[in-house]
Amino acid sequence: MNLALKSPEPRPGILDIAAYVPGRERAPGVAKVHKLSSNETPLGASPRAIEAFQRTAFNLERYPDGQARVLKEAIAAVHGLNPANILCGNGSDELLGLLCHTYLGPGDEGIVTEHGFLVYKIQITAAGGTPVTVREADARVDVDAILAAVTERTKIVFIANPANPTGTYIPVDEVRRLHARLSAGVLLVLDAAYAEYVRRNDYEAGIELVSSNCNVVMTRTFSKIHGLAGLRIGWMYAPRQVVEAVDRVRGPFNLNAPAIAAGAAIRDQAFLAAAVEHNLVWLARVSEALTAIGLRITPSVTNFVLIHFPETGAKSAEEADAFLTGRGFILRAVSAYGFPNALRMTIGSQEANEGVIAALTEFMGRK
Ligand SMILES: Cc1ncc(COP(=O)(O)O)c(C=O)c1O
Q1: Among 9, 27, 85, 290, which residue has the fewest nearby CB atoms (within 10 Å)?
Q2: Under a CB-based contact definition with an 8 Å cutoff, are residues 99 and 246 in contact?
Q3: Residue 181 has pLDDT above 70, yes or no
Q4: Which residues does ligand 1 sit against, CB inside 6 Å?
Q5: pLDDT surpassing 70 at residue 3
């Protein structure tokens, strides 16, 4: 027997990970497809970001700036932060992973919530830690459930605020209450990927909490409202000690040059305002229209909405998914998130939104 034919064993736990499945993008046989499965914006990227991206085409032989300075400075200027407290990542996904690899090892626990973003669990496990899942209350992060699950082994707590795929949020007072009961040795990660969309007086993404504590991190992304998912840009705002620790673990050039240049166009705030306005109008219209045809919606503050299908009859989420896909509307099945009979719909263009409403009206009206 040729022993070399056997591959080395991955570390314990790695093969238990259910690999992340991205939103579908194909509807075979359908001419026009509306991809509403990954919470991407229907408005594309800012023209300034596209111009900056194009300009980098003539310097591709050069390594990017490993510190992503112009990007950090642009983020810092827009949000009123110190660039020294910012670290950029290849998408916020990378930062979530880096945080786990920096703070977790075998025997350590990371707390995630019942319907939380799946990357947390994957990265906790990949780092050798143990994910501990706590229940949510009515598809909303439950602070008391998290606090009840904290042990002396807990090293990290992840919450998405607002959350994906539910679209719900918890007010800043609740986040503060959670933080106040965690010991200094526990890192609280506030994943605010959808923060820009939220229009609620009692919501905060986490800047104040990070600024005044040593164990809170806020992560953000350029993939959603900024329309740059293809470039993979995320950032975190964190205490200096956390930035300095994670900086040692990341790849030296984890952001590429076109991403750094395009991301620095975050200063185009007019583009952002138009995206917020489009979403506000269509989130309300889509939610109302789907409710009116008898579907239950989880009220959302984001750019997507969770649609629950009837438990009985031939109108399950799976059937709706097939029906919509046949008409070119690709939503996201969310069984892996604990919602076997729901679909998540990203708020799209007017054409896409009206198309989904019309298709689901037909679907619900079928005998
Ligand atoms: C809650 C949440 N966090 C993080 C991410 C990852 O975003 P990025 O594209 O920056 O890796 C997503 C993307 O779907 C998300 O929904």
Answers
A1: 9
A2: yes
A3: yes
A4: 39, 91-93, 117, 160, 164, 191, 193, 221, 223, 229, 234
A5: no
What's 66's DSSP letter?
T
The answer to whether residue 3 is domain-embedded is no
pLDDT of residue 132: 98
Residue bearing the CA closest to ligand 1, atom 14? 38
CA–CA gap between residue 98 and residue 118 (Å, rounded): 15
Sign of the torsion angle spanned by Cα atoms 203, 207, 212, 214: positive
**With 0-12 CB in 10 A as exposed, 13-18 as middle and 19+ as buried, what is 43?**
middle
- How far apart are the CA of 322 and the centre of ligand 1, in A? 25
From 21, 37, 99, 164, give the residue whose CB has the most ligand 1 atoms within 8 Å, as the site to mutate. 164
- The number of folded domains in the chain is 2
Q: Is residue 1 part of a domain?
A: no
Residue 16 lies inside a defined structural domain of this protein: no
Q: What are the tens digits of pLDDT across the range 211-225?
A: 999 999 999 999 999
CA separation for the pair 286, 348 (Å, rounded):
10
4 in any annotated domain? no
The preferred substitution site among 37, 118, 158, 223 for testing ligand 1, maximizing ligand atoms within 8 Å of CB, is 223
Average pLDDT, the chain: 96
pLDDT digit string (tens) for 315-367?
A: 999 999 999 999 999 999 999 999 999 999 999 999 999 999 999 999 998 76
**pLDDT tens per residue across span 70-116:** 999 999 999 999 999 999 999 999 999 999 999 999 999 999 999 99
Nearest atom (ligand 1) to Cα of 160 = 1
CA dist 308 and 295 (Å) reads 6
Q: Check whether residue 191 and residue 305 sit in a common domain.
A: no
Ligand 1: which residue has its CA nearest to atom 12?
A: 193
125-129 mean pLDDT: 97
